[in-house]
Design a protein that fits this description.
This protein is α/β, with parallel strands linked by helices. It contains 14 helices and 17 strands. Helix 3 packs across helix 10 and helix 4 packs parallel to helix 5. It is globular and about 70 Å long. The mean pLDDT is 97.
């Protein structure tokens, strides 16, 4: 499919040691490592092409502007948006969701209305809606979670009532790995004239995304989850929807004309990008997307699924280890608990073995409450991980059991 050893050479950090052991990086759901190509393009911007964008007539400004706008087109093609005008650069998925809450839903929401989310949502797809609902005296409705980590979609027809003004749901759970059947959810919501926001923060790096085929009104993701820089993300929204939304912030570059009496706002997407943007972030993200495209998202998915199955078999053989989230359709995330051992102790000992994992509630406390546990240890794999690394993780977990009794 692809040469894993050559791929690993593209990621300089994978060659370092932690506590004298080769690094095994298995915290990709939190943030992915960056290929040399992304590091180089950011360095090149600052050493050869940097200036502020859109407003300058000099050569450096023209170069930076072209790179920035080309990045927008790269994002458009990667998720198959109809137009680059449907791509708004933001700081990340969190800001994108808050933008939709403030600019789209706030003016529409009335007392007694409802916002529908699921029990598996990241806090970023709970709190903005909760804050808005409290302010407008609306309410949150919740799609419940089943024991295996799948959503109880049999409840959806009843939950999609006439008072629901938005369905906001994750495409892939960051703490369980569950990949939801969002196509079916969108069809059911649209049958009730309910718009849909998809949180693609996790799914973007693992499965092909086609926003036109999905037909969702909004799709959000963060650059750092897909091998790009931090501080950059994307809000996709249908052009007609964006044009009807009010600006999220005011400032430079989101205007056409300003007087003390009135401001005329810029066209989309610029009216949502106030101030100097994260120029290097957008360019770095575009390079990351090009890198992923060259490997092929379908190829990545196939490789990661094999790795997930291998790791699942290895972990299930460890006595006392229980995997949390066993959905039939999963991304390469395995969360687990070990009877009698706190996840933080597991994570600390694994770190001493050079293994980087995530422990805690993963910003999904309602998920932890559903399983009546305080936290899990999460191993999240991606295309630069190997079976040998899974073996190293398995050996480190067994060492935890030996040390902790």
């Amino acid at each position: 499919m692809f040469d894993i050893q050559n791929i690993r050479k593209d990621f300089p950090i994978l060659g370092i040691e932690i506590h004298g052991k080769p690094l095994v990086y298995a915290d990709n759901a939190a943030s992915t490592q960056k290929p040399q190509q992304v590091i180089d393009v950011i360095s090149d911007l600052y050493t050869k092409n940097y200036a502020n964008i859109h407003r300058g007539v000099h050569q450096l400004s023209q170069r930076s502007t072209a790179l920035y706008e080309n990045a927008r087109e790269t994002v458009q093609k990667f998720i198959n948006a109809e137009s680059s005008q449907e791509i708004v650069f933001v700081r990340g998925a969190t800001e994108a969701i808050n933008l939709v809450a403030s600019s789209y839903l706030d003016p529409l929401l009335e007392q007694g209305d409802e916002i529908l989310i699921s029990e598996m949502e990241h806090h970023s797809n709970i709190i903005p809606w909760q804050m808005l609902a409290e302010r407008k005296r609306a309410s949150l409705k919740i799609i419940p979670l089943l024991e295996n980590g799948e959503l109880d979609l049999e409840t959806l027809p009843e939950l999609l009532g006439p008072k629901v003004k938005l369905l906001a749901v994750t495409q892939m759970s960051n703490s369980l790995g569950t990949i939801n059947d969002v196509s079916s959810m969108i069809r059911q919501a649209h049958a009730m004239n309910i718009p849909v926001l998809l949180d693609g923060a996790q799914s973007i790096a693992h499965i092909p995304i086609d926003v036109q085929a999905l037909a969702c009104e909004f799709f959000v993701f963060s650059g750092h989850k897909i091998y790009g820089p931090t501080g950059i993300g994307v809000l996709y929204a249908k052009k007609k929807v964006l044009e009807g939304m009010r600006p999220y912030q005011g400032g430079g570059d989101m205007i056409l004309d300003v007087s003390f009496e009135k401001t005329e706002f810029n066209e989309v997407p610029y009216k949502f990008e106030a101030g100097t943007p994260n120029i290097e972030g957008a360019i770095g993200l575009a390079t990351a997307l090009d890198y992923v495209s060259e490997l092929g998202v379908a190829n990545i998915d196939k490789y990661e699924q094999k790795l997930l199955k291998y790791a699942t078999v290895q972990f299930e053989a460890i006595q006392g280890l229980r995997i949390i989230g066993t959905a039939a359709c999963k991304g390469s995330v395995i969360s687990f608990v070990i009877e009698g051992i706190h996840p933080h102790d597991i994570g600390t000992i694994l770190d001493m073995e050079g293994v980087a994992v995530r422990t805690g509630h993963h910003c999904t406390q309602p998920v932890m409450d559903c399983y009546n546990i305080p936290a899990t240890t999460r191993v999240s794999l991606c295309f630069y991980n190997t079976k040998a690394e899974v073996d190293a993780i398995t050996g480190a977990i067994k060492k935890v059991k030996e040390l902790m009794g």
